[in-house]
């Protein structure tokens, strides 16, 4: 038992959840958790290596899990970035920082000029007199500061973004800058697609392919809100999940604290208790409340034959955007007094689009190119209503 009364299992789960959800754990910022990871390093390293293919880095200053997605998703990017140029400049800032030692100081204007000159040699042209280019660089720099890879000693890049060279910033390099990018098994220039990144490098042997399949399955189950049987890449992965479900359930419960169960639509997991380490559904945003209300309304509609709704064999419910908008408008009329001003004033089309985007982000809905919408089976595990409101149910 620890000083706080936690068991070794509880501490290990806390370490795993932190390593999965944080960029790193530093000794300076979280000395207790860092000491726990150091004490359980071998068990953590072996588990992540065996089941996920993730490397666990540990030195005197920090611990970092070298994560890679089983399947890249749009929400896996930086929330503060709004266009590809932000990511490109973020990468070239890291390139610039490679030439700096820890605590080296430099000016923003020197940094951006060196990056501009280097890119010009690659026939890529930046113009710092353009506000959009400066704004992209400012977003990249803010993200590096948030990660702890860069320290602003004096000044703010937002002022430079607004007014250009009239403002400057004095930065200091951090040792963490060298560890932002994960290590790759081969030269980056040899990858020709995103799928090649996701596939990884495994021997073309039965043992190598089994390891690849196991890593891919565990990565997706740990990193995505939900993975349905039909969403696995091939029949071999579906077969692995079906035949190894008891091992998967036991592993993720004992090590990661994830409770799971086999349903018709797939193997679904949830965290039994909320944790500050994770961003869970339902979120604290008002759109999550509306999504839960939608789940309850769909349940009631399915009980009425005249609604015309029915559940497909794989558990999905098909809707048109007009039907979703109509349902959301009914919910608005019924519960609007409990909604924020933003949602009370939203048009039906805007509200339906926001709810749909939220459900898509959490793997609870999807849309096809022909405009058809699908509400996925996992949403049916919720049934939302307001306890304090005597509606007309």
Description of the structure:
The chain contains 15 helices and eleven strands. The chain is mainly alpha-helical and 393 residues long. The chain folds into four domains: 8-66; 78-179; 193-270; 286-381, Arc Repressor Mutant, subunit A (Orthogonal Bundle). Strand 10 (365-367) and strand 11 (373-375) form a beta hairpin. Helix 4 packs across helix 6. It is globular. This is TIGR02678 family protein. It comes from Desulfotruncus arcticus DSM 17038.
How many alpha or pi helices? 15
H-E string: HEHHEEHEHHEHEHHHHEEHEHHHEE
Mean pLDDT: 89
| Total number of beta strands | 11
Low-confidence stretches: 389-393
**Oligomer designation:** single chain
The best one-word shape is: globular
Distance between the termini: 49 Å
Give the structural class: mainly alpha
Number of domains: 4
Helix content: 40-55%
Topology of helices and strands:
Elements: H1 8-21, E1 25-26, H2 31-39, H3 41-51, E2 55-58, E3 62-66, H4 84-97, E4 105-107, H5 108-121, H6 131-147, E5 150-154, H7 157-163, E6 170-173, H8 194-199, H9 206-223, H10 235-243, H11 245-256, E7 259-263, E8 266-270, H12 286-302, E9 317-319, H13 321-335, H14 341-345, H15 348-361, E10 365-367, E11 373-375
Antiparallel strand pairs: 1-3, 2-3, 4-6, 5-6, 7-8, 9-11, 10-11
Helix pairs in contact: 4-6, 6-7, 9-10, 12-15, 13-15
């Amino acid at each position: 038992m620890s000083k706080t009364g936690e068991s070794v299992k509880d501490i290990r789960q806390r370490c795993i959840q932190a390593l999965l959800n944080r960029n790193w754990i530093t000794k300076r910022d979280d000395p207790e958790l860092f000491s726990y990871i150091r004490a359980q390093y071998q068990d953590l390293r072996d588990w992540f290596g065996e089941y996920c293919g993730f490397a666990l880095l540990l030195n005197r200053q920090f611990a970092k899990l070298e994560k890679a997605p089983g399947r890249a998703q749009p929400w896996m990017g930086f929330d503060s970035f709004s266009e590809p140029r932000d990511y490109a400049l973020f990468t070239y800032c890291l390139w610039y920082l490679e030439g700096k030692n820890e605590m080296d100081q430099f000016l923003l204007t020197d940094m951006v000029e060196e990056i501009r000159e280097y890119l010009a040699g690659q026939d890529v042209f930046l113009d710092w007199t353009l506000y959009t280019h400066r704004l992209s660089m400012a977003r990249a720099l803010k993200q590096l500061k948030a990660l702890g890879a860069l320290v602003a000693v004096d000044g703010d890049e937002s002022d430079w973004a607004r007014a250009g060279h009239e403002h400057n910033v004095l930065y200091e390099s951090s040792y963490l800058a060298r560890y932002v990018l994960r290590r790759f098994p081969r030269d980056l220039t040899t990858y020709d697609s995103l799928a090649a990144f996701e596939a990884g490098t495994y021997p073309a042997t039965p043992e190598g392919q089994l390891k690849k399949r196991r890593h891919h399955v565990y990565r997706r189950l740990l990193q995505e809100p939900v993975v349905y049987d039909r969403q696995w890449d091939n029949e071999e992965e579906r077969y692995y999940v079906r035949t190894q479900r008891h091992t998967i359930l036991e592993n993720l419960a004992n090590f990661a604290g994830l409770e799971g169960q086999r349903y018709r639509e797939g193997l679904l997991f949830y965290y039994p208790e909320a944790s500050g380490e994770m961003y869970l559904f339902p979120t604290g945003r008002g759109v999550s409340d509306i999504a839960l209300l939608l789940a309850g309304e769909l349940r009631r509609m399915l009980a009425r034959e005249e609604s015309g709704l029915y559940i497909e064999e794989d558990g999905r419910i098909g809707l048109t955007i007009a039907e979703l908008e109509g349902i959301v408008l009914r919910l608005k009329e019924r519960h609007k007094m409990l909604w924020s001003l933003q949602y009370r004033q939203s048009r039906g089309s805007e509200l339906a689009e926001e709810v749909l985007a939220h459900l898509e982000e959490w793997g609870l809905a999807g849309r096809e190119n022909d405009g058809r919408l699908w509400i996925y089976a996992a949403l049916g595990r919720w049934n939302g209503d307001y306890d304090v409101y005597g509606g007309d149910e």
